[in-house]
Amino acid sequence: MSVRTEPPGRPPAVTVRIATWNINSVTARLPKLLEWLESAKPDVLCLQELKCAADAFPYEAVRELGYETAAHGNGRWNGVAIVSRIGLDDVVRGLPDQPGYFADGALLPEVEPRAIAATCGPVRVWSVYVPNGREVGHAHYQYKLEWLEALRKAATEDAAGPRPFAVLGDFNIAPTDDDVFDAAAFEGLTHVTPVERAALAALDGIGLQDVLPRPLKYDHPYTYWDYRQLAFPKNRGMRIDLTYANKPFVEAVTDSYVDREARKGKGTSDHAPVVVDLDL
To answer: Which residues does the entry assign to the active site, renumbered to this chain (predicted)?
Structure first.
């Protein structure tokens, strides 16, 4: 965050860089994470798919770069965190009334660590990792829809407030056909069904807007590419890492882009960071 001097009579302008990244194992990707923090210099970074317990997060490594962290994870394939160098207050782990999911053979539903919120300087953010859904008709698909409804309810008050607010993360939904490389290839699959898209669009109803990345190299700025079949070099991707923000946040956006450079090379996540710059 930087403060810019304005003419007399106007408050100083504050520039804030906020990003989201499905890291696909913070342990395996730690060198990539530290490298990216140093080069991109986000003020706030929302992480998903930690694949580590909260007490195993590499707090000290990111602290050495000037960041504090709030993490929420249980060591399985999910987990979320918020990394900030502009403050980390009013942390909330999990959604109010968040549904649980009966894992295979489980006697009780597990309330998974898929959401965390914090106030970071002048903004309030949620980092979310929406359930995958697996396949249409699966119990996990219904769980995904219930989870999205819990998110909508949890975000309603902040969405209507005067403070810049955004929900960032891996939504596991491509909002439109333009957000996948080939709509026909996804026919009948999750991530693109009308029901999922309607659940995502319900966030519009509480005053949140999809902040679109500015195309840099390609017309359609995807955020995820499968590791297989040369999907990244061929740009056979999906835009599923999203920023849904309220009016005060959207009006402050000066730039938004997908950092494809972070997806290149070996040992990367299959997702790229999405960066949003604000001038408040």
So the answer is: 129, 170 (proton donor/acceptor), 271 (proton acceptor)
